[in-house]
Write a structure and sequence with these properties.
Layout lengths: L1 H8 L3 E7 L1 H4 L4 E7 L2 H17 L15 E3 L6 E5 L3 E7 H7 L1 H4 L15
Parallel strand pairs: 2-5
Antiparallel strand pairs: 1-2, 3-4, 4-5
Helix pairs in contact: 1-3
Length: about 120
């Protein structure tokens, strides 16, 4: 939830959390978010990384600091991916997200409510 909240704090568009654990098996959750320009993609990614690394926000879920084991696409800033093992964060330019439409691809995965859910 901390990743979704961090994206939302930087005005990400249409932040979605999918529970893909039963479908994929190697990852539990996808956080998917959009940005209107490449600068915002980088800002959202940087904020998510910082938030999960330092766990410095009052609304953060309980847990230890986390560092991604993989980081792809951040320099191009069209589709950035942060791999935390059990969590994968996708931050897209809006038009790129519409093209790949991960929500349709993983339509069987339940959406996880993260707005108005109190932190653990």
């Amino acid at each position: 939830m901390a990743a979704a909240r961090a994206a939302d704090d930087k005005k990400a568009l249409d932040v979605v959390v999918l529970d893909v654990g039963d479908t994929i098996g190697v990852v539990d959750y996808f956080v998917i978010a959009s940005a209107s320009n490449d600068r915002q993609v980088r800002t959202i990614v940087d904020t998510i990384e910082e938030r999960l690394r330092t766990r410095d926000d009052d609304a953060a879920d309980s847990g230890a600091a986390r560092i991604p084991i993989g980081r792809e696409g951040v320099d191009a800033s069209r589709w950035a991916l942060l791999d935390y093992g059990d969590l994968v964060v996708h931050v897209f330019l809006d038009e790129v997200r519409r093209f790949y439409d991960l929500e349709r691809l993983w339509a069987d995965a339940p959406r996880v409510a993260w707005v108005d859910v109190p932190p653990a």
